[in-house]
Amino acid sequence: MFVNREKQGCFTDVYVYSDDSIILDYYPRGTTAFGLFSAVAGLGVDRPNKIIYFAPVKDKIRIPLTFLADWESEAVPWAEISRDLSGKLEVSVMPESATRGWEIRDWSPQLRE
Questions:
Q1: How far apart are CA 29 and CA 73, in angstroms?
Q2: pLDDT at 86 over 80
Q3: Is this prediction's pTM over 0.85?
Q4: What does the alpha-carbon distance between residue 81 and residue 70 come to, in Å, rounded to a whole number?
Q5: How far apart are CA 62 and CA 50, in angstroms?
Q6: Cα–Cα distance between 68 and 75 in angstroms, integer?
């Protein structure tokens, strides 16, 4: 509470915490969680060629596609990613219009090589 009240801070990761001893103040370790969605989906984006790659580490996941967000409208598209029984990648994006003009590819075979 002291850090937020006195220093108006964020990203505090402290081990010794008192009014006169704060260690690792403003250390951004917690922000690494923002990459978790992309990592689980094995997400890769080739923006110049408009290609989205997926190599999910587990089946049946749903992630936000923040790189396609319309921030002014406060709309973030979501991708539902799974594999069918044969192992073929299945991706459903809502709303579908968010990926209009984009190609979606399975990145898993390239990663195994």
A1: 30
A2: yes
A3: no
A4: 21
A5: 21
A6: 9
* CB-based contact 2:10 (threshold 8 Å): no
Per-residue pLDDT tens over the stretch 38-84: 999 999 999 999 999 999 998 899 999 999 999 999 999 999 999 99
| Rounded-to-integer distance, Cα 73 and Cα 15, Å | 40
Concatenated DSSP letters for 43-109?
Answer: -EEETTTTEEEE--SSSSEEEE-GGG-BTTTTB--EEEEEE-TT--EEEEEESGGGGTT-EEEE-HH
Q: Tokens representing 16?
A: 């010794």
Distant-in-sequence, close-in-space partners of 106: CB < 8 Å, separation ≥ 6: 53, 54, 55, 88, 89
91 touches 78 (CB < 8 A):
no
Residue 2 pLDDT > 90: no
Q: Which residues contact 107 (CB under 8 A, 6 or more apart)?
A: 42, 44, 53, 54, 55
